[in-house]
Amino acid sequence: MLKDAEKTIGNLIDKQRIAFISSVDDDGFPNTKAMLPPRKREGIKVFYFSTNTSSLRVSQYRVNSKACIYFCDKRFFRGVMLKGIVEALEDAQSKNMIWKDGDTMYYHQGVTDPDYCVLRFTVSEGRYYSNFKSENFFIE
Questions:
Q1: Taking the alpha carbons of 107, 93, 96, 126 in that order, is the dihedral positive or negative?
Q2: Which among 75, 77, 99, 132 is most buried, taking Cβ atoms within 10 Å?
Q3: Are 113 and 52 a contacting pair, CB within 8 Å?
Q4: Which residues of 35-69 are buried (b: 16+ CB within 10 A; e: fewer)?
Q5: What are 16-53's pLDDT values in tens digits?
Q6: For the chain, which domains are there?
């Protein structure tokens, strides 16, 4: 049994430089890409990523909000898959919440750039892999 899932999984996530995020395309197939890690997280329930509003991923989430994120600790060969729902947020409060100095490199018009949005990923369940064993868990 996974002891203190939030702490164990949170520590794994915080040490990763890459997050893998998946969406569902028009034909029902998963599409996965590497992204920078989440800018903010609320426990292991809600994650916030920055991305381009014009991206393929955002257009796919607007049609089908089901998603998955995966974090892999290659050094210790363990990982966590989180399933849930993604929303693309374009309100000023959400954009300001995760904005960082240097983001103008990606979003030239600054925090109000219409091509900058926030992906809010809300987790419903997950699967943790460590020591050659996997374990499912649910998040309230």
A1: negative
A2: 99
A3: no
A4: eebbbebeebeebbbbbeeebebbebbeeebebbb
A5: 999 999 999 999 999 999 999 999 999 999 999 999 99
A6: 5-138 (2.30.110.10)
**Spacing of C-alpha 97 from chain mean position:** 16
Going by pLDDT thresholds of 50, 70 and 90, the confidence category of residue 117 is: very high
| Cα distance between residue 44 and residue 124, in whole Å | 10
* d(C-alpha 16, C-alpha 69), whole Å: 13
Both tokens of residue 130? 């460590």
Distance, CA of 2 to CA of 122 (rounded, Å): 21
| The residue type at 130 | S
**What does the pLDDT look like over 60-111, one tens digit per residue?**
999 999 999 999 999 999 999 999 999 999 999 999 999 999 999 999 999 9
Which of 100, 81, 87 has its CA nearest to residue 40?
100
Bridge partners (DSSP) of residue 118 are 50, 89
For a pLDDT cut of 90, what percent of the chain falls above it? 93
Q: Average pLDDT, stretch 120-140? A: 93
